[in-house]
Design a protein that fits this description.
Strand content: 25-35%
CATH architecture of the largest domain: 3-Layer(bab) Sandwich
CATH topology of the largest domain: Hsp33 domain
CATH superfamily of the largest domain: Hsp33 domain
CATH class of the largest domain: Alpha Beta
Distance between the termini: 51 Å
Shape: globular
């Protein structure tokens, strides 16, 4: 299988554009198997994991973290959380099973969430800086919501496409660079983006089959889309893994931060505190003295 569980970056200097292509296979299966969600929720989480990989790998430091959260108060989906850290992706969805069961086949984003918001947080490990943008949750699918986020929060023209076929999911992110070369105008003060319009038209031709074909290398996808450009630079690929930073020692260290009285209140009649990790669906029992 070609470039499975991998992100490949690229830049098109003459068009002042950058992008990422990703394909998830075994990693996606591992995450979804841990939860047993209904099909509509699985599809949403698969798209979120693809987007987390696309956005997370734009971080300049391996120790940085990108967290994406979508939330509503009245939807069938109450909360979606997905993040990327050091090549690891993880995510979970809190939903109302009865509302999900009553939805039509293949519901769109607004049907799943209703009125909600999207928050994206970038934690830069090297500079210790944190940036968070919060926008209304708009669009028919999560990719469109991300496009709205970049347009409203960062004024960066962006295109996001995701696809899922069987147990494979893929996606592409293409963006106009936030600033041009030295001496050029900042993009957000310009009224037209001829270079971006050209790149966007080409990127729109990507198909579900190309994004999810396990035999098609990711660099072939980039070549198919942009082979007529003067120069396309392929960046180093990034392997992806299923991640969860919980373990028995960490869970116990968190419990010990509470007072003895609080620990007793949390424990059952056998003196055991059970901690359920939403990301990996594991239960960690902690025996208190």
């Amino acid at each position: 299988m070609a470039d499975m569980d991998c992100v490949l970056g690229f830049t098109i200097a003459s068009r002042h554009a950058r992008g990422r292509v990703v394909r998830l296979g075994p990693v996606l299966e591992q995450v979804l198997q841990a939860h047993g969600y209904p099909p509509a929720v699985e599809k949403l989480l698969a798209e979120a994991l693809v987007i987390a990989a696309l956005l997370g790998t734009t971080l300049k430091s391996d120790d940085g973290q990108m967290t994406m959260q979508a939330q509503t108060e009245d939807g069938a989906i109450e909360l979606l959380v997905c993040d990327y850290h050091a090549g690891e992706v993880r995510g979970y969805v809190k939903h109302d099973p009865e509302k999900i069961a009553a939805l039509p086949h293949d519901p769109d984003l607004q049907t799943l969430f209703g009125k909600g918001y999207l928050a994206i947080t970038f934690d830069q490990a090297l500079t210790k800086e944190r940036y968070q943008g919060i926008v209304p949750l708009e669009g028919t699918h999560l990719g469109e919501a991300i496009e709205h986020y970049f347009a409203q929060s960062e004024q960066i023209p962006s295109l996001v496409r995701t696809a899922m076929s069987g147990d494979i999911a893929g996606g592409i992110l293409v963006q106009h660079l936030p600033e041009g070369e030295v001496g050029r105008e900042r993009l957000h003060v310009r009224h037209d983006h001829p270079e971006w319009e050209h790149v966007s038209i080409l990127a729109h031709t990507i198909s579900t089959e190309e994004l999810t074909d396990p035999a098609l290398p990711l660099d072939d996808i980039i070549w198919r889309l942009f082979h007529e450009e003067d120069q396309v630079r392929i960046l180093d690929g990034q392997a992806l893994r299923k991640g969860c930073r919980c373990d028995a020692d960490y869970v116990r260290s968190v419990i010990l931060r509470f007072s003895e009285e609080e620990q007793r209140d949390m424990a059952d009649d056998k003196g055991v505190i059970s901690i359920d990790c939403a990301f990996c669906s594991k239960i960690f029992p902690v025996q208190i003295s």
